[in-house]
Amino acid sequence: MYVQYNMDPLILPMDLEILIPNQHLSRIVHTAVEKMVPNILNQLFPGGGRPSFHPKMMLKVILYAYTNRIYSSRQIAKQLGENIYFMSIEAVDKEQTEAWKEQVGRVENMTYDEELDEWICANQKRLTFQYEKYKQRKIDVEPVFGQIKYNRGFDRFSLRGLSKNTTDWGLICIAHNLKKWEGHTQKKLKKCKE
Protein backbone atom coordinates (compact mmCIF):
# COMPACT_ATOMS: atom_id res chain seq x y z
CA MET A 1 0.00 0.00 0.00
CA TYR A 2 1.35 3.42 -0.97
CA VAL A 3 0.40 6.98 -0.14
CA GLN A 4 -1.53 8.58 -2.99
CA TYR A 5 0.82 10.27 -5.45
CA ASN A 6 -0.51 12.86 -7.90
CA MET A 7 1.64 15.19 -10.02
CA ASP A 8 -1.35 17.41 -10.92
CA PRO A 9 -2.92 18.37 -7.60
CA LEU A 10 -5.31 21.27 -7.32
CA ILE A 11 -4.30 23.42 -4.37
CA LEU A 12 -6.97 25.70 -2.97
CA PRO A 13 -6.84 28.55 -2.35
CA MET A 14 -4.61 29.36 -5.31
CA ASP A 15 -3.27 32.45 -3.58
CA LEU A 16 0.49 32.42 -2.96
CA GLU A 17 0.10 34.84 -0.03
CA ILE A 18 -1.25 32.06 2.18
CA LEU A 19 2.03 30.13 1.86
CA ILE A 20 4.23 33.04 2.98
CA PRO A 21 4.82 33.68 6.72
CA ASN A 22 3.56 37.00 8.11
CA GLN A 23 7.00 38.40 9.01
CA HIS A 24 8.84 37.15 5.92
CA LEU A 25 11.26 39.53 4.19
CA SER A 26 9.16 39.55 1.01
CA ARG A 27 6.24 41.00 3.00
CA ILE A 28 8.53 43.63 4.55
CA VAL A 29 9.75 44.70 1.10
CA HIS A 30 6.13 44.76 -0.14
CA THR A 31 5.02 46.94 2.79
CA ALA A 32 7.94 49.35 2.44
CA VAL A 33 7.36 49.93 -1.29
CA GLU A 34 3.57 50.21 -0.92
CA LYS A 35 4.01 52.96 1.69
CA MET A 36 6.05 55.07 -0.75
CA VAL A 37 4.44 58.19 -2.18
CA PRO A 38 3.13 57.12 -5.63
CA ASN A 39 4.12 60.41 -7.27
CA ILE A 40 7.82 59.56 -6.87
CA LEU A 41 7.58 56.57 -9.19
CA ASN A 42 4.99 58.10 -11.53
CA GLN A 43 7.32 61.02 -12.32
CA LEU A 44 9.98 58.61 -13.57
CA PHE A 45 7.68 56.94 -16.10
CA PRO A 46 6.01 59.43 -18.46
CA GLY A 47 4.06 56.75 -20.33
CA GLY A 48 3.62 56.09 -24.03
CA GLY A 49 4.67 53.08 -26.02
CA ARG A 50 3.99 49.49 -25.03
CA PRO A 51 2.42 49.04 -21.56
CA SER A 52 5.18 48.41 -19.05
CA PHE A 53 5.18 46.54 -15.75
CA HIS A 54 4.14 48.61 -12.76
CA PRO A 55 7.13 50.49 -11.26
CA LYS A 56 6.21 49.38 -7.72
CA MET A 57 6.32 45.73 -8.75
CA MET A 58 9.68 46.20 -10.47
CA LEU A 59 11.10 48.01 -7.43
CA LYS A 60 9.86 45.24 -5.12
CA VAL A 61 11.52 42.57 -7.26
CA ILE A 62 14.85 44.42 -7.39
CA LEU A 63 14.89 45.21 -3.67
CA TYR A 64 13.96 41.66 -2.69
CA ALA A 65 16.63 40.27 -5.03
CA TYR A 66 19.28 42.61 -3.59
CA THR A 67 18.35 41.63 -0.02
CA ASN A 68 18.99 38.02 -1.04
CA ARG A 69 22.39 38.80 -2.62
CA ILE A 70 21.11 38.39 -6.18
CA TYR A 71 22.41 41.11 -8.49
CA SER A 72 22.36 39.48 -11.93
CA SER A 73 19.29 40.12 -14.10
CA ARG A 74 19.42 36.52 -15.34
CA GLN A 75 19.45 35.18 -11.79
CA ILE A 76 16.55 37.47 -10.89
CA ALA A 77 14.59 36.19 -13.91
CA LYS A 78 15.37 32.60 -12.87
CA GLN A 79 14.14 33.25 -9.33
CA LEU A 80 10.92 34.81 -10.68
CA GLY A 81 10.15 31.48 -12.32
CA GLU A 82 11.23 29.19 -9.46
CA ASN A 83 10.99 30.94 -6.10
CA ILE A 84 7.56 31.29 -4.47
CA TYR A 85 8.55 34.48 -2.63
CA PHE A 86 9.59 36.17 -5.87
CA MET A 87 6.39 34.95 -7.53
CA SER A 88 4.25 36.49 -4.81
CA ILE A 89 5.97 39.86 -5.29
CA GLU A 90 5.72 39.72 -9.07
CA ALA A 91 2.07 38.54 -9.24
CA VAL A 92 1.67 38.88 -13.02
CA ASP A 93 0.77 36.52 -15.84
CA LYS A 94 3.72 35.25 -17.86
CA GLU A 95 3.89 36.17 -21.52
CA GLN A 96 4.91 33.54 -24.04
CA THR A 97 6.48 35.47 -26.90
CA GLU A 98 9.40 35.24 -29.25
CA ALA A 99 10.12 38.96 -29.11
CA TRP A 100 13.87 38.33 -28.82
CA LYS A 101 13.99 37.66 -32.57
CA GLU A 102 13.11 41.30 -33.16
CA GLN A 103 15.42 42.80 -30.52
CA VAL A 104 18.23 44.87 -31.97
CA GLY A 105 20.61 44.44 -29.03
CA ARG A 106 20.77 40.63 -28.97
CA VAL A 107 24.01 39.03 -30.14
CA GLU A 108 22.06 36.50 -32.22
CA ASN A 109 20.77 39.39 -34.35
CA MET A 110 24.21 40.99 -34.89
CA THR A 111 27.10 40.41 -37.27
CA TYR A 112 30.79 40.77 -36.43
CA ASP A 113 33.22 42.75 -38.59
CA GLU A 114 36.69 41.26 -37.98
CA GLU A 115 38.52 43.99 -39.91
CA LEU A 116 37.28 46.81 -37.72
CA ASP A 117 36.79 44.67 -34.56
CA GLU A 118 33.20 45.77 -34.04
CA TRP A 119 29.67 44.40 -34.01
CA ILE A 120 26.93 45.58 -36.38
CA CYS A 121 23.40 45.62 -34.94
CA ALA A 122 20.29 44.58 -36.83
CA ASN A 123 19.55 48.29 -37.40
CA GLN A 124 23.02 48.73 -39.02
CA LYS A 125 24.58 50.68 -36.14
CA ARG A 126 28.17 49.83 -35.22
CA LEU A 127 29.23 48.97 -31.67
CA THR A 128 32.87 49.65 -30.85
CA PHE A 129 34.62 48.54 -27.69
CA GLN A 130 36.45 51.29 -25.81
CA TYR A 131 39.48 49.63 -24.23
CA GLU A 132 40.70 52.78 -22.45
CA LYS A 133 37.46 53.24 -20.52
CA TYR A 134 37.38 49.56 -19.61
CA LYS A 135 40.88 49.80 -18.09
CA GLN A 136 39.81 52.68 -15.86
CA ARG A 137 36.87 50.79 -14.37
CA LYS A 138 37.50 50.00 -10.73
CA ILE A 139 37.14 46.42 -9.56
CA ASP A 140 37.38 46.85 -5.80
CA VAL A 141 34.81 48.80 -3.84
CA GLU A 142 36.29 51.31 -1.38
CA PRO A 143 36.74 50.13 2.24
CA VAL A 144 34.10 52.60 3.46
CA PHE A 145 31.48 50.28 1.98
CA GLY A 146 33.07 47.14 3.42
CA GLN A 147 30.08 46.05 5.45
CA ILE A 148 27.78 45.96 2.44
CA LYS A 149 30.52 44.39 0.34
CA TYR A 150 31.08 41.65 2.92
CA ASN A 151 27.53 41.07 4.20
CA ARG A 152 25.64 41.46 0.91
CA GLY A 153 28.32 39.94 -1.35
CA PHE A 154 28.43 43.09 -3.47
CA ASP A 155 31.82 43.51 -5.14
CA ARG A 156 31.22 45.58 -8.28
CA PHE A 157 28.66 47.70 -10.03
CA SER A 158 26.86 46.12 -12.95
CA LEU A 159 26.16 49.41 -14.74
CA ARG A 160 28.40 52.15 -16.12
CA GLY A 161 28.02 55.86 -15.55
CA LEU A 162 27.71 57.92 -12.40
CA SER A 163 23.93 58.37 -12.51
CA LYS A 164 23.31 54.66 -13.08
CA ASN A 165 25.74 53.64 -10.33
CA THR A 166 24.17 56.17 -7.95
CA THR A 167 20.78 54.53 -8.55
CA ASP A 168 22.27 51.05 -8.21
CA TRP A 169 24.02 52.01 -4.97
CA GLY A 170 20.82 53.55 -3.60
CA LEU A 171 18.90 50.34 -4.27
CA ILE A 172 21.61 48.27 -2.59
CA CYS A 173 21.54 50.53 0.48
CA ILE A 174 17.74 50.25 0.67
CA ALA A 175 17.98 46.46 0.36
CA HIS A 176 20.61 46.38 3.11
CA ASN A 177 18.40 48.47 5.41
CA LEU A 178 15.37 46.27 4.70
CA LYS A 179 17.42 43.22 5.64
CA LYS A 180 18.42 44.94 8.90
CA TRP A 181 14.76 45.84 9.47
CA GLU A 182 13.79 42.18 9.05
CA GLY A 183 16.39 41.14 11.65
CA HIS A 184 15.13 43.79 14.06
CA THR A 185 11.52 42.61 13.53
CA GLN A 186 12.51 38.98 14.15
CA LYS A 187 14.21 39.95 17.44
CA LYS A 188 11.07 41.78 18.57
CA LEU A 189 8.93 38.75 17.75
CA LYS A 190 11.18 36.46 19.80
CA LYS A 191 10.96 38.82 22.78
CA CYS A 192 7.15 38.96 22.50
CA LYS A 193 6.90 35.16 22.42
CA GLU A 194 9.02 34.81 25.56
From TrEMBL:
Entry-linked InterPro entries: Tnp_DDE_dom, Transposase_InsH_N
Residue span, Transposase InsH N-terminal domain: 15-89
Domain Transposase DDE: 114-180
One Pfam family linked to the record: DUF772
Name of the featured protein: Transposase
